[in-house]
Design a protein that fits this description.
It is a single chain. The protein is built from nine helices and 20 strands. The strands form four sheets. It has an eight-stranded mixed sheet with strand order 6-7-5-15-16-17-14-18, sandwiched between helices. Strands 9-2-1-13-20-19 form a six-stranded mixed sheet, covered by helices on one side. A three-stranded antiparallel sheet has the order 3-8-4. A hairpin with a 2-residue loop joins strand 10 and strand 11. 47% of the residues are buried.
Length: 382
């Protein structure tokens, strides 16, 4: 494929890149996706058993976009015949300090048309007796989780069906080459008038100027095997402790254990290729304390495994979906910021509309390069 020219090259095979490549294929653009490893890539931020899908956001724009994404994943399920989106519900639980937070989530969700239901203390204890803590909660009934790795595989399948080609190559570089943009790897060089860089936590290796506004950090994940049936589907639901940094998913027999993860800004990491079998300092102890206090579960009673994933954050935790201001033909699609996966069914449409010059309510100045550069010094999570 060396020397071949395409209409579009996408660098990065996570959910941002795959969604973009698929949409380009749908629009009959000759498209090449370049990824360092096979897709799905086990160290990609898009890899794993589950990712939340919910419309409960403090920012109403993300609420509307999440509802579009829910419909988008349903369409992808129809096209591929795969179960990807499990509408098991999502429960935001407050221990008192986050009541105002829940009220804003509820207001935005209702305005967007989501089905949400408020639970007082008695209703929470009656419907979800697993919780030992929590005074009130907000249940979004059509929320749930996405089977992340299966979603990535489905996006690749559809992209290939629409003519997208895939190539592997390391040590990528992106540069202008006459009237085209060149993507050079250790294996080949490719050319296109437009290149979308969706390299996630590796974006700074291609564009060092992003160093001060992209923040990579490690997030711990714990799995408990053999938990009681009350903590498995369908008896239990995905949840978030609104007063805490913790969230999780019920166990699924034959698929995954009871999952607990943390949504918090940790110290920045220098190497996005860090060992995913490690966890951030203090995570193991904090997770065990949360499980005992909120659920009465002691990790010592179960088979426990740990892993971690990477957050690729903008300091505003908004996405960066915009043209590079100094490199004509280069578009940046990055900064999933710990909540971007759910939008993988619609991100490609947003990117291609920008490339095609089509006005869209789905894009917002929050996603602009200018906004990205002027955000604060430390991320604030949504």
């Amino acid at each position: 494929m060396t020397g071949r020219a395409f209409d579009l090259i996408v660098v990065g095979g996570g959910v941002f890149g795959l969604s973009t490549a698929l949409e380009a294929g749908r629009r009959r653009w000759s498209t090449l996706l370049v990824e360092r490893h096979a897709v799905p890539n086990p160290i990609s931020a898009s890899y794993g058993s589950s990712r939340k899908i919910r419309s409960t956001y403090l920012d109403a724009h993300y609420t509307r976009l999440a509802l579009e994404a829910m419909a988008g994943w349903r369409q992808i399920e129809v096209e591929t015949g795969r179960e990807l989106y499990v509408a098991a519900g999502n429960l935001n639980v407050s221990d008192g300090e986050a009541d105002a937070h829940l009220e804003t989530l509820e207001a935005n969700a209702r305005r967007g048309g989501a089905r949400v239901r408020r639970l007082d203390t008695n209703e929470l204890r009656r419907e979800f007796p697993q919780f030992r803590r929590g005074d009130r909660a907000l249940l979004e009934e059509d929320a749930g989780f996405l089977r992340a790795t299966d979603c990535v595989a489905a996006l690749r399948e559809l992209a290939e069906r629409h003519g997208v080609e895939f190539a592997t190559g390391r040590d990528s570089a992106v540069a202008r080459g006459g009237s085209h943009v060149e993507v050079r790897t250790d294996a080949a060089t490719y050319r296109a008038p437009q290149v979308v860089v969706a390299a996630g936590g590796w974006s700074k290796r291609l564009f060092p100027e992003l160093e001060r506004t992209l923040w990579q950090c490690q997030q711990g994940i714990m799995y408990l095997e053999g938990v009681p049936a009350a903590y498995c589907r369908p008896a239990f639901v995905p949840y978030s402790g609104a007063d805490t940094d913790f969230y999780g998913f019920p166990a699924e027999t034959g698929r995954a254990g009871f999952k607990l993860a943390r949504h918090v800004v940790t110290d920045p990491i220098d190497d996005p290729d860090f060992d995913r079998r490690t966890t951030p300092g203090g995570f193991v102890e904090a997770a065990a304390e949360f499980l005992r206090a909120w659920f009465g579960l002691d990790p010592r009673d179960y088979r426990v495994t740990y892993e971690s994933c990477m957050y690729n954050l903008s300091t505003s935790t908004d996405f960066l979906l915009d043209h590079h201001p100094e490199l004509p033909g280069v578009f940046l699609a990055t900064a999933g910021s710990g909540h971007g996966f759910k939008f993988g069914s619609v991100l490609g449409r947003i990117v291609l509309d920008r490339l095609d010059g089509i006005a869209s309510d789905s894009w917002t100045p929050q996603f602009s390069y200018a906004s990205f550069l002027t955000a604060g010094p430390r991320p604030r999570l949504l």
